[in-house]
């Protein structure tokens, strides 16, 4: 795993741009993210949050700009290579391995991390079992280890995804709408867990979120994206007071914060 | 070869005429696939029915222009009605089954139509009337070109134009295009889906029937028409992009031209030409010329249960199965021992396909290639190199491994039906090379005299050897399924994006699975060649690949026992009934019954039956029961 200079930023994004057929989805986005920071990226629907995320972990190649992770240029690197460097992510629509059990989902990440995925004859069931149990315990899922992933409730899937993302001890986690589709109490609980992980394990988290309650309560710092551009940046108080942000959320005819819910999980 | 302009023009016009015929059939298949996502193998049968009906109806009507063209149209409509009826009676019941399961039903329909046609029209080929007014030939640059060919050249674009009009000027056509684009969305908009599917089946089948009826003046009508055309039609649809009618026309032109001129340039592998063209197109454009990747990732959530290590009951079932086989071998006489040996070999072959299909999520339409390559390699080693049996058995699967590594590298760059079609292309290329390189392979005559060593000569000893090797191979496949590789492979199948996001190179794992699968098919192949003492090109042809596919799907893709149950019951039942006159009809009906009664395959059906009995008897364990009703 790469090392960072003690207080150098974990992530440095400069001039990131992407357009789809003339529509500028993301324009000249620059920001930095420090160690153990919980940074929120907010903005109305279609502001370019997910596009931004997809460029950060290599799912999408930017037209312009650079992504530097722990001092290393990872622009255009494949997601799986970025993951090996310690950049994990969770998805807006939960992504798990539905035919497997909860603990197997975590074991997959551990097997991959230990580069054992081409082993043909050892028994996978025992592979990293203890470590996987510890990770599930971390997210409060220890009791569900042997349940079939397909029968989990939505909130549990989100927590499982978090456990999977933590399996390779990442330096940075990208969480795309981690609490979308959850009940308010569960939202707060999940983000409190994320905040704890940031505080206790030195992981940095960049997350997008529609629920302003969650954002204002947990984020150390907030970036506001509108029409592909960053229009404000600062603490919760500063963002609350910012006139442009108010306009985007309340005046500009764009949707209210929190109006968009993730599609219910089928 | 002289560059005679007239000759080239003649070839060109003949190619255009063939393209029209091919297009009519392919457009129907493409439309059906676009809307229903059914890989309809019965489409060639609709074409054949069109030819027979066209023949009978035009014979019955008074001769003349009206009689011929009117009869042709009536035949096409009749085939459309038959297609719609089949959709209502059979296919409608299984739209919710796992992907590709419908394919099994359409294959059963092929068998049923085969025997129904045989029953109605008999085995003798029929020579139809020439088209009135178009029975001559015109001289162009010194070449005689049949007038009827010129008419066909015009009919293709005319039909293309008519389909375009229907698709762009009618509400129904707009719905069909919308459904091709995004099926779920159309359903969500409140369109009556079953009505749409039935009408689409009517149109698609009618187009196939029209293609068949129009073929009557060009070739004799026979029972081979269905299978002769189906592979080429699939090639055309895939090259054009599944669901694209314009694509089907362009691809039909391409294939017809390559067929006409390929034979002049590459006579040695002329049979493989369409498949080489398809492979090249798919490698450059993984969804065909005019196709698009599936819109969105509307991936059906898998209802599959986690893979558990074998419990006591299943271990007992395995022992019972082995005991049953041994009983068949030693108490069933000469016939029993041959059948038992076959069952072991075929089970291993099916299990190897299941490995890439069930765990890897890659369906193969050409798995027999690796079975056959290994069998031929063993035959070469035994005859040309004079190796004894065991070293030949050990070395030959290496050939299958190399071939799987080579072809697999291309195949895993695609997904879904396109990947399956690439495997088919690979198998057809191998088959045509084996078939046409007769100096080395003996061509159609095959290689004879590949017998086991003296110690294994008796059928009983060879059965035991097959059982031992087969069991070891099956246990090894099981171990791999439960090893880290098997886990990661399933993860990649479940959710490619998620797997990549935890560092997994999904394509590379699929490639490795392709190779593993090829090796085990190869082991089945060597066991086969020494059991039979000979090998023929048939063993790597399409029907052998489809047998394996049917066994895996019928048995149940979602169960590790599926392929074994499928292989054993398929082999046993077919062996039992194939002495009857209309056995294909019976076999087809049986397959459809399984498909309708057990949409999760024989393994799933038995499991549900067992649960039902257990519940009745009152010793049901309390477990969350997810599989039911899923």
Automatic annotation (TrEMBL), chain A:
**Superkingdom of origin organism:** Bacteria
Protein name as annotated:
ABC transporter ATP-binding protein
The organism's taxonomic lineage, starting at the top: Bacteria, Pseudomonadati, Pseudomonadota, Alphaproteobacteria, Rhodobacterales
Which keywords appear in this protein's UniProt record, sorted alphabetically? ATP-binding, Nucleotide-binding, Transport
Q: Name one Pfam family in it.
A: ABC_tran
SMART domains of this UniProt entry?
Answer: AAA (SM00382)
Q: What GO MF annotations does this protein's record show?
A: ATP binding
- Ranges for domain ABC transporter: 11-252
Automatic annotation (TrEMBL), chain B:
Its main subcellular localisation, reduced to a broad class, is: membrane
Q: Which InterPro entries match?
A: ABC_transp_permease, BCAA_transport_permease, LivM-like
Question: Which Pfam family is one of those matched by this entry?
Answer: BPD_transp_2
Q: Which UniProt keywords apply?
A: Amino-acid transport, Cell membrane, Membrane, Transmembrane, Transmembrane helix, Transport
State if Ribonucleoprotein is listed as a keyword: no
**Where does it reside?**
Cell membrane
The membrane topology term of the UniProt record is: Multi-pass membrane protein
Q: Where are the transmembrane segments?
A: 6-26, 38-55, 67-91, 103-122, 150-167, 195-214, 272-291, 312-331, 337-356, 393-412, 419-441, 461-489, 510-530, 550-573, 585-606
The Swiss-Prot or TrEMBL record describes its family as follows: Belongs to the binding-protein-dependent transport system permease family. LivHM subfamily.
Protein name in the entry: ABC transporter permease
**What species is this protein from?**
Paralimibaculum aggregatum
Taxonomy of the source species: Bacteria, Pseudomonadati, Pseudomonadota, Alphaproteobacteria, Rhodobacterales
């Amino acid at each position: 795993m790469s090392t960072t200079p003690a207080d150098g930023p974990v992530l440095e994004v400069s001039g990131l741009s992407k357009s789809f057929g003339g529509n500028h989805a993301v324009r000249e986005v620059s920001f930095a993210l420090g160690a153990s920071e919980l940074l929120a990226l907010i903005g109305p629907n279609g502001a370019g949050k997910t596009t931004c995320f997809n460029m950060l972990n290599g799912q999408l190649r930017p037209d312009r700009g650079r992504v530097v992770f722990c001092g290393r240029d990872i622009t255009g690197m494949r997601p799986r290579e970025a993951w090996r460097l310690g950049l994990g992510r969770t998805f807006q629509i939960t992504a798990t391995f539905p035919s497997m059990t909860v603990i197997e989902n975590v074991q997959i990440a551990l097997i991959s991390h230990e580069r054992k995925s081409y082993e043909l004859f050892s028994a996978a069931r025992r592979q990293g079992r203890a470590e996987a149990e510890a990770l599930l315990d971390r997210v409060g899922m220890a009791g569900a280890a042997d349940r079939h992933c397909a029968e989990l409730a939505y909130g549990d899937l989100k927590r499982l995804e978090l456990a999977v993302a933590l399996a390779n001890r990442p330096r940075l986690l990208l969480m795309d709408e981690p609490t979308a589709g959850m009940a308010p109490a569960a939202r707060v609980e999940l983000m409190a867990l994320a905040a704890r992980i940031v505080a206790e394990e030195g992981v940095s988290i960049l997350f997008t979120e529609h629920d302003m309650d969650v954002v204002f309560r947990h984020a150390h710092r907030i970036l506001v994206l509108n029409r592909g551009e960053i229009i404000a940046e600062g603490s919760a108080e500063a963002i609350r007071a910012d006139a442009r942000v108010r306009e985007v959320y309340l005046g500009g005819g764009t949707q209210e914060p929190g109006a968009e819910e993730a599609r219910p999980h089928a | 070869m002289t560059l005679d302009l007239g000759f080239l023009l003649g070839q060109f016009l003949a190619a255009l005429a063939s393209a029209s015929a091919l297009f009519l059939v392919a457009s129907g298949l493409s439309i059906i696939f676009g809307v229903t996502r059914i890989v309809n193998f019965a489409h060639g049968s609709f074409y054949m029915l069109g030819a027979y009906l066209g023949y009978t109806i035009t014979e019955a009507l008074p001769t003349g222009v009206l009689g011929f063209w009117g009869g042709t149209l009536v035949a096409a409509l009749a085939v459309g009605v038959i297609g719609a009826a089949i959709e209502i009676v059979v296919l409608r019941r299984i739209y919710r089954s796992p992907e590709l399961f419908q394919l099994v039903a359409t294959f059963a329909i092929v068998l049923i139509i085969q025997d129904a046609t045989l029953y109605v029209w008999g085995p003798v080929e029929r020579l139809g009337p020439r088209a009135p007014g178009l029975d001559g030939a015109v001289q162009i640059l010194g070449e005689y070109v049949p007038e009827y060919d010129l008419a066909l050249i015009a009919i293709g674009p005319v039909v293309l134009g008519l389909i375009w009009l229907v698709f762009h000027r009618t509400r129904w056509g707009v719905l069909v295009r919308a459904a091709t684009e995004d099926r779920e969305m159309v359903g969500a908009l409140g369109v009556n889906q079953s009505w749409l599917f039935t009408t689409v089946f009517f149109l698609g089948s009618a187009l196939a029937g029209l293609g068949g009826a129009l073929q009557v003046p060009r070739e004799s009508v026979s029972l081979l028409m269905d299978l002769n055309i189906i592979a080429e039609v699939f090639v055309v649809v895939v090259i054009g992009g599944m669901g694209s009618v314009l694509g089907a026309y362009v691809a039909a032109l391409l294939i017809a031209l390559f067929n006409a001129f390929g034979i002049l340039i590459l006579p040695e592998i002329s049979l493989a030409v369409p498949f080489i063209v398809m492979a090249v197109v798919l490698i450059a454009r993984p969804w065909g010329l005019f196709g698009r990747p599936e819109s969105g990732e509307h991936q059906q959530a898998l209802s599959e249960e986690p893979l558990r290590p074998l419990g006591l009951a299943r271990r007992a079932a395995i022992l019972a199965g082995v005991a049953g086989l041994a009983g068949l071998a030693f108490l069933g006489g000469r016939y029993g021992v041959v059948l038992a040996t076959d069952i072991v070999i075929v089970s291993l072959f099916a299990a190897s396909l299941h490995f890439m299909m069930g765990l890897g999520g890659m369906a193969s339409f050409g798995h027999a290639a690796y079975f056959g390559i290994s069998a031929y390699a063993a035959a070469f080693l035994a005859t040309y190199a004079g190796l004894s049996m065991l070293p030949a058995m050990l070395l030959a699967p290496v050939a299958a491994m190399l071939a799987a590594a080579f072809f697999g590298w291309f195949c895993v760059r695609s997904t879904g039906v396109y990947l399956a079609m690439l495997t088919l292309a690979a198998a057809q290329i191998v088959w045509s090379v084996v078939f046409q390189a007769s100096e080395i392979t003996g061509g159609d005559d095959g290689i004879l005299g590949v017998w086991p060593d003296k110690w294994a000569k008796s059928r009983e000893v060879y059965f035991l050897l097959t059982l031992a090797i087969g069991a070891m191979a099956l246990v090894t496949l099981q171990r791999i399924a439960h090893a880290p590789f098997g886990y990661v492979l399933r993860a990649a199948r479940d959710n490619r994006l998620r797997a990549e996001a935890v560092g997994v190179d999904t394509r590379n794992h699929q490639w490795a699975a392709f190779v593993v699968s090829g090796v085990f098919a190869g082991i089945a192949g060597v066991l086969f060649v020494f059991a039979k003492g000979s090998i023929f090109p048939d063993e790597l042809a399409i029907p052998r690949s489809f047998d394996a596919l049917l066994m895996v799907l019928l048995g149940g893709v979602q169960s590790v026992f599926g392929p074994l149950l499928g292989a054993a019951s398929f082999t046993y039942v077919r062996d039992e009934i194939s002495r009857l006159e209309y056995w294909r009809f019976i076999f087809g009906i049986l397959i459809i019954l399984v498909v309708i009664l057990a949409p999760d395959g024989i393994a799933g059906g038995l499991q549900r039956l067992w649960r039902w009995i257990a519940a009745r008897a009152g010793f049901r364990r309390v477990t969350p029961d997810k599989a039911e009703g899923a």
